[in-house]
Amino acid sequence: MASGETLVPRRTRSSAIELVAIERRFDDGVEALAPLTLRLPAGSFVALLGPSGCGKSTLVRLLTELDRPTRGSIHKPFDLKMACVFQDPCLLPWRTVLDNAALPLELAGVPEAERHAATKDALAQVGLADAASKYPAQLSGGMKMRASLARALVVQPTFLLLDEPFAALDEITRQALDDHLRTLWKAWGFTALFVTHAVDEAAYVADRAVVLSRRPGRVVLDHPLDLPSDRTTALRSDARFAAQTGILRNALAESGGAL
Ligand SMILES: Nc1ncnc2c1ncn2[C@@H]1O[C@H](COP(=O)(O)OP(=O)(O)OP(=O)(O)O)[C@@H](O)[C@H]1O
Ligand SMILES: [Mg+2]
């Protein structure tokens, strides 16, 4: 980031991310993913659903390159900037919110004044402008997750990978964060892959939902969500929303996995 530049909404120009015939078999013989092919066009918001243990987090680890596929290939644009958000916000208790969220920039050697300016911007974007000097122990669960989101945003990602980020939060907080995430995505234009157990959450935040079978995971449904682009609370009780969540529930039931 150039000196003085702040975090501003922008559109990604990257091309698609593709997983082609991915398989992952662990040393103990557990087959986590069957041949699985998935294309994430640049700027798309895809929700990934599937029964517990079907290989969703394995797929996430393959995308982060913390793990490698047994077979198949993953294609990512050379200029991809990836950031991850997990269920555990993983904040360092001895660091303030500002210094936690600034960590990726600190590790990248960004000078202090510049990283503080960029981090304050990111905190403002997730609604934590007034909490910069607080410590994690002083935050609610939702605030911790917002801090974790800010830490992901400071690198100006073109690809945001989220593995059940809001699963441990209460319903109201989760819905507020779903709204916030969707707003951030619309403003920034990053590609998003959002793993969730919750059918309603998948339908609300994403533009497309992919359902995996029971382990070894393979795609059983790849469904463009037929909903207005602007998601509001009222949509949750709309018949169109119920129709979309019904399609996802049926696919999950047929995949052999109860959630
Ligand atoms: N390092 C590993 N070694 C052996 N088996 C593994 C390893 N990592 C994951 N597994 C197995 O692979 C399968 C898929 O695990 P994974 O964590 O990807 O599931 P998941 O879909 O994310 O489940 P959940 O919804 O509960 O988070 C599980 O059976 C798990 O026990
Ligand atoms: Mg998982």
Core attributes:
binds magnesium ion; globular; 8 helices; 2 domains; binds adenosine-5'-triphosphate; 21% strand; 259 residues; three-stranded antiparallel beta sheet; 34% helix; alpha/beta
Folded structure, characterized:
The protein has helices spanning 56-64, 97-101, 103-107, 112-125, 141-153, 171-188, 199-205, 239-254, and strands spanning 17-25, 31-40, 45-49, 71-75, 82-86, 159-163, 191-195, 208-212, 219-224. With 259 residues, it is of the alpha/beta class. It has 2 domains: 1-81 and 157-259, 3-Layer(aba) Sandwich (Rossmann fold), CATH 3.40.50; 92-155, no CATH class. Strands 5-6-7-3-8-9 form a 6-stranded mixed β-sheet, sandwiched between helices. Helix 4 (112-125) crosses helix 5 and helix 7 (199-205) crosses helix 8 (239-254). Residues 26, 28, 30, 32, 50, 52-58, 215 line the site of adenosine-5'-triphosphate.
Number of helices: 8
What are the distinct ligands in this entry? adenosine-5'-triphosphate, magnesium ion
The CATH superfamily name of the largest domain is P-loop containing nucleotide triphosphate hydrolases
The total beta strand count reads: 9
- Mean pLDDT, rounded to whole units? 92
Strand order of the largest sheet: 5-6-7-3-8-9
Helix-strand pattern: EEEHEEHHHHEHEHEEH
Give the % helix: 25-40%
- Please outline the major beta sheet: 6 strands, mixed
Enumerate the spans where pLDDT stays under 50 for 5 or more consecutive residues: 1-5, 8-12
The general outline is globular
Q: How far apart are the first and last residues' alpha carbons, in Å?
A: 42 Å
**Structural class by secondary-structure content:** alpha/beta
Count up the domains: 2
Strand content: 15-25%
CATH topology of the largest domain: Rossmann fold
Assigned CATH class of the largest domain: Alpha Beta
Report Rg.
18 Å
Examine the secondary-structure arrangement and name the CATH architecture of the largest domain. Answer: 3-Layer(aba) Sandwich
